Every structure is written in C-alpha cells, then in structure tokens.
C-alpha cells in the first residue's frame, strides 16, 4: 500500500487584519490629515493602506547600509582596499565614483523612490500635497573642507520633468572632535501637482592614501511623506 502522506505542517498564525471601518479609524487617528478625513479612489481600500503604511515611513531602501549608530561617534576606520559594496547591505542603491584632483574622489549613491509603488496615490499627492521630508547624517571626517553633498529632485511621471529640487553642500566648521555625526534635512511643501518620484542622491568625499581609500561615511538616510502638523 502507498505510504501515508505526511501531515500538514500548520503555518505561522497570521495577525488578524482590521475591518475596513476600523482600518480607516486607526489610520485617520494616526495620520491626522488637515481636513480630518481622506477620500480614497475606488481602487484603494483602507485595509490595503493599513498594510502598506505609505505615510510616516522611510521610503528609501537600505537607509543604513553599514549598520552605523548615529548616537555614537563614527567607529574608527583606516583606509581600505575593499569596494564599498562589500562593506554592508547596499541593496537599492546605485553607486558610482567621481574622481577629483589631489587624491580626492566622491562616492555617489542614489536611488529613485516611486511614490505610487510605495502606496501613495495621485489625488493625495496632487490635492493634499503632504510634506516630503528628506533627512541624512554624514560623518565629520575632516578629509576636506566639504565632505558631503545632498541633491534631491521631485519628478513627474516621466521621471525627467523636475517639479521641485533641493541642493546643499555644507562646509564643516572644523571645531570639536572629528568623527561626530552632522545632520542635514529639508522639507518640500506646496510643491504643486504632478509629483510621482523622489530622486535622492548624496555624495561623500574620499581621500586616497598609501593603504587605500579613506572614506566619509553616511547613515540613516530617509525620505518620508507626512501631513503638516
């Protein structure tokens, strides 16, 4: 006779999902839109939004590739011959090197966030125009007067038309101990209709030394969407 079939292994219990009405109540309390309510297009449900949580969430992939804690000084590191991609989880980042003079170079990391794919919807972006907040932390490496640049573009559906943009290249003061973390941030407000993508790009300075490349590190990068408080 044939061997008996192996018993089914029960799967992990799935958390109970809220009803449509309860999901709406929870999200409106959490998001607090200015009008007190939100109208969803027919293709969307509150239960789906409850699962995806497109607001108040970091939309960048691998925002802390090297696992560095900003609440502690940047861990000491010497020059290295290893490619950056081998030093952490850089999934989602497009990385290239931009050579400069005097043994300097930029490491350029960028990614483009598809706002609709992340769960936002056209009517929300065009009519409500919630804040789009950019934050980043970079190491005061003292490798040059300017060791970091941030460039962000809000793009239309064609990924080329620029609706709003922000660029900053801060110079450090040189005061205090090296290796501390410095924050940069920007909030896009009232940017107009049509935004569908956020192109995030930052550059960090490197210096070539006999033992390899000494890098400026960056961590806790974020792009998030939220209502004005």
Automatic annotation (TrEMBL):
<keyword id="KW-0963">Cytoplasm</keyword>
<dbReference type="GO" id="GO:0006516">
    <property type="term" value="P:glycoprotein catabolic process"/>
</dbReference>
<dbReference type="GO" id="GO:0036503">
    <property type="term" value="P:ERAD pathway"/>
</dbReference>
<dbReference type="GO" id="GO:0031146">
    <property type="term" value="P:SCF-dependent proteasomal ubiquitin-dependent protein catabolic process"/>
</dbReference>
<dbReference type="Pfam" id="PF04300">
    <property type="entry name" value="FBA"/>
</dbReference>
<dbReference type="GO" id="GO:0061630">
    <property type="term" value="F:ubiquitin protein ligase activity"/>
</dbReference>
<comment type="function">
    <text>Promotes cell proliferation.</text>
</comment>
<dbReference type="GO" id="GO:0005737">
    <property type="term" value="C:cytoplasm"/>
</dbReference>
<dbReference type="InterPro" id="IPR007397">
    <property type="entry name" value="F-box-assoc_dom"/>
</dbReference>
<dbReference type="InterPro" id="IPR039752">
    <property type="entry name" value="F-box_only"/>
</dbReference>
<protein>
    <recommendedName>
        <fullName>F-box only protein 50</fullName>
    </recommendedName>
</protein>
<feature type="domain" description="FBA">
    <location>
        <begin position="49"/>
        <end position="227"/>
    </location>
</feature>
<dbReference type="GO" id="GO:0019005">
    <property type="term" value="C:SCF ubiquitin ligase complex"/>
</dbReference>
<dbReference type="InterPro" id="IPR008979">
    <property type="entry name" value="Galactose-bd-like_sf"/>
</dbReference>
């Amino acid at each position: 006779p044939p061997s008996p079939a192996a018993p089914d292994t029960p799967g992990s219990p799935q958390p109970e999902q809220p009803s449509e009405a309860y999901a709406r109540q929870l999200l409106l309390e959490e998001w607090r839109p200015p009008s007190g309510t939100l109208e969803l297009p027919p293709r969307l449900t509150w239960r789906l939004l409850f699962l995806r949580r497109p607001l108040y969430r970091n939309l960048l992939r691998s925002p802390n590739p090297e696992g560095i804690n900003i609440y502690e000084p940047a861990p000491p590191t010497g020059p290295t011959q290893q490619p950056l991609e081998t030093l952490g989880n850089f999934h989602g980042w497009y990385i290239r090197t931009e050579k400069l003079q005097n043994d300097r170079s930029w490491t350029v990391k960028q990614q483009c966030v598809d706002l609709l794919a992340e769960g936002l919807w056209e009517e929300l972006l065009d009519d409500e125009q919630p804040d789009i907040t950019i934050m980043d932390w970079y190491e005061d490496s003292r490798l040059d007067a300017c060791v970091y640049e941030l460039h962000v573009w809000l793009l239309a559906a064609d990924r080329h038309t620029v609706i709003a943009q922000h660029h900053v290249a801060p110079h450090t003061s040189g005061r205090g101990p090296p290796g501390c973390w410095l924050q940069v941030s920007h909030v896009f407000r009232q940017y107009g209709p049509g935004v569908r993508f956020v192109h995030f790009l930052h550059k960090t300075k490197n210096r070539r030394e006999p033992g390899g490349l000494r890098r400026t590190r960056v961590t806790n990068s974020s792009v998030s969407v939220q209502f004005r408080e």
